[in-house]
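Ops channel
N.P.: pipeline sanity check, posting one input/output pair.
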């Protein structure tokens, strides 16, 4: 009897694996949930006795819950509606208090990628305003390696390229033959489930749902002023100059610095 139960379990597991693999290969769309990590390096302020203790209370990293929706034609990467962890929310509050003393900076809210036209549309927020930045997908010099890892049951292959001093490594699965991925990372013969920068986790998939119905949910971001790249850069620089000239929050421009590594 025990042998029959074990055989039945093994058969069921085998059939389940085959079914999942076939589903992935035939996927016409789906949803992937990711954790996107942010890392911070804070400036030392020896002239302020309390400063060292203050930055000890700040987290070295936080994470955002993100989601990628995709079908055969396009993909949309955006903030997830998944409830935020209470601890992570408190850490972000501390970072927000610190950032109040820093120069304003733009943040990417969502990224839309049209597979057929190569169109890339980013919605950015900057100083309470939204902007729509239209561009074309840039070909990245990916070099596919031989290393493999398993992520959420999918066999993923390594691909990497150099970007200045950074080595960007992506882990993609050909089991889901969609040339897409989180944020601006794409261009591989399979869905990207993880991204590393200099060997450190940047983006990691936490759930893949190939049964999710995406009809009507993958739409181009529309809210915001349409701008070109150089035009937006000019707007950012001008507003930062105005912020600095006005003294910034509480009249302390540039007195605090933080390196925020966002991927």
């Amino acid at each position: 009897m025990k042998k029959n139960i074990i055989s039945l379990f093994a058969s069921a597991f085998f059939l389940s694996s085959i079914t999942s693999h076939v589903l992935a290969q035939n996927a016409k769309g789906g949803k992937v949930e990711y954790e996107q990590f942010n890392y911070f390096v804070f400036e030392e302020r020896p002239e302020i006795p309390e400063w060292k203790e203050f930055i000890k209370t700040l987290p070295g990293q936080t994470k955002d819950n993100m989601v990628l929706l995709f079908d055969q034609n396009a993909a949309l990467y955006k903030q997830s509606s998944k409830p935020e962890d209470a601890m992570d929310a408190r850490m972000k509050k501390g970072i927000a208090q610190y950032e109040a003393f820093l120069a304003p900076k733009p943040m990417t809210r969502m990224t839309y990628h049209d597979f057929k036209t190569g169109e890339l549309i980013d919605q950015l927020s900057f100083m309470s305003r939204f902007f729509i930045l239209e561009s074309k997908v840039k070909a990245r010099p990916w070099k596919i390696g031989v290393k493999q890892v398993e992520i959420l049951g999918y066999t993923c292959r390594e691909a990497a390229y150099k970007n200045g001093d950074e080595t960007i490594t992506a882990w993609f699965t050909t089991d889901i033959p969609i040339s897409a991925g989180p944020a601006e990372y794409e261009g591989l013969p399979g869905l990207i489930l993880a991204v590393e920068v200099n060997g450190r986790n940047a983006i990691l998939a936490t759930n893949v749902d190939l049964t999710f119905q995406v009809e009507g949910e993958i739409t181009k971001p529309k809210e915001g002023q349409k701008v070109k790249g150089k035009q937006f850069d000019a707007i950012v620089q001008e507003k930062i100059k105005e912020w600095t000239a006005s003294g910034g929050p509480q009249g302390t421009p540039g007195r605090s610095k933080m390196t925020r590594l966002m991927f």
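N.P.: looks fine end to end. The chain has four helices and 13 strands.
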